[in-house]
């Protein structure tokens, strides 16, 4: 919880200690570690709070200048480092832009080093925060350190509705959480009969009309047109049974 001053790729920043010091095997250190410069002084924290309060007004001024230059970009956040020596404006745009004149104007206005950083819609959601469809804070601001590829095939694999409104996050892209259980669904479905497949059950023969991966149960429509839910281990594919019989006959 103590604040320290650290060296980052963006320069010196203030941050809160999130984990006590510990030794790590060298093979677990994937990137070069940045050192802690010093413990933050009370004045550092005063400066940090001061510049944090300036950010909304700073963002407003930047948007006004953006309108003057007529650039097709949308600035979503302004962020100072702890002592105001570095100011980053995050923006979204559909293509690469030449914003050098705007950057020079901003540097003259705010009298500090300016960086204009283009981000994607998923990064924007991570910056701005919010609640997901589940009612919890967005995964990307809670624990996700990087974004994994997400495909519509994952939604199909998990038998989810394919409506974009149902499977898209605040960023408008497919929900990151579609990746969490996808591997489990794929593994279980390999062991379960497919919808439409003819099977034998303790209730008699029938046809698979649905599967519940999490419960590992099968919905089977019997020849009597009654549908029953049966544990997966109590269902045998007719094809597998027939193949097994042919193997026994040959032996």
Automatic annotation (TrEMBL):
PSP1 C-terminal domain mapped to chain residues: 34-119
Record's GO cellular component terms: cytoplasm
NCBIfam families given in the database record: RicT_YaaT_fam (NF041131)
This protein's name: PSP1 C-terminal domain-containing protein
Organism from which the protein derives: marine sediment metagenome
């Amino acid at each position: 919880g103590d604040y320290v001053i650290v060296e980052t790729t963006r320069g010196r920043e203030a941050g809160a200690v999130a984990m006590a010091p510990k030794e790590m095997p060298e093979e677990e250190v994937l990137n070069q570690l940045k050192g802690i410069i010093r413990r933050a002084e009370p004045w550092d924290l005063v400066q940090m709070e001061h510049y944090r309060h300036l950010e909304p007004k700073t963002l407003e001024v930047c948007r006004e200048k953006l309108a003057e230059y007529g650039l097709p970009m949308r600035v979503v956040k302004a962020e100072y480092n702890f002592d105001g020596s570095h100011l980053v404006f995050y923006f979204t745009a559909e293509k690469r832009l030449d914003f050098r004149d705007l950057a020079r104007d901003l540097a003259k206005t705010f009298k500090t080093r300016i960086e204009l950083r283009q981000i994607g819609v998923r990064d924007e959601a991570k910056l701005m925060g919010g609640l997901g469809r589940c009612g919890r804070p967005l995964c990307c601001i809670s624990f996700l350190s990087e974004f994994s590829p997400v495909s519509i095939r994952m939604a199909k694999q998990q038998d989810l509705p394919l409506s974009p409104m149902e499977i898209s996050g605040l960023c408008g892209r497919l929900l990151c959480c579609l990746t969490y259980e996808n591997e489990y669904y794929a593994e279980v479905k390999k062991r379960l009969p497919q919808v439409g497949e003819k099977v034998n059950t303790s209730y008699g023969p029938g046809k698979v009309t649905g599967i519940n991966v999490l419960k590992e149960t099968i919905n089977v429509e019997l020849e009597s047109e009654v549908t029953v839910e049966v544990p997966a281990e109590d269902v045998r594919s007719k094809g597998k049974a027939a193949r097994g019989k042919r193997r026994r006959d040959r032996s």
